[in-house]
């Protein structure tokens, strides 16, 4: 699949920093690939954080992405830092 603008939303904004939320059916390995967020290059700034819910509808994973670079319309985010990586009953 690909980036969908309707699935990116602002959670908080202050002092030139934005905290985003993004949800997708795509795997985290696809979402954190350079260029995935190019459609949002006019919105995302280096240092912005994205709370991501990936692989929704499958085996979900969630975590944090940080915008590492955004130049000439090409966005690169860090690899997903997972939240709740283990679940013991």
The total of helices stands at: 1
Mean pLDDT: 92
Summed up, the domain count is: 1
Q: Tell me the strand percentage band.
A: 35-45%
Radius of gyration: 13 Å
User: Count the strands?
Assistant: 6
Task: Name the helix and strand elements from N-terminus to C-terminus, one letter apiece.
Answer: EEHEEEE
Q: Tell me, briefly, the overall form.
A: globular
User: What composes the largest sheet?
Assistant: 6 strands, mixed
Spans of at least 5 consecutive residues whose pLDDT stays below 50 are none
Structural class estimated from helices and strands: mainly beta
- Termini separation (Å)? 33 Å
Helix content: under 10%
Describe this structure in words.
The chain is mostly beta strands. It has one domain (5-82). Helices cover 4% and strands 42% of the residues. The longest helix has 4 residues, at 28-31. It starts with 7 loop residues before the first strand and ends in a 7-residue tail after the last strand. The mean pLDDT is 92.
């Amino acid at each position: 699949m690909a980036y969908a603008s309707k699935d990116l939303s602002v959670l908080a904004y202050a002092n030139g920093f934005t905290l985003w939320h993004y949800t997708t059916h795509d795997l985290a390995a696809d979402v954190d690939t350079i260029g995935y967020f190019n459609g949002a290059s006019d919105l995302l700034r280096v240092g912005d954080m994205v709370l991501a819910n990936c692989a929704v509808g499958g085996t979900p994973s969630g975590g944090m992405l940080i915008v590492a670079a955004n130049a000439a319309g090409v966005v690169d985010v860090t690899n997903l830092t997972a939240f709740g990586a283990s679940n013991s009953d």
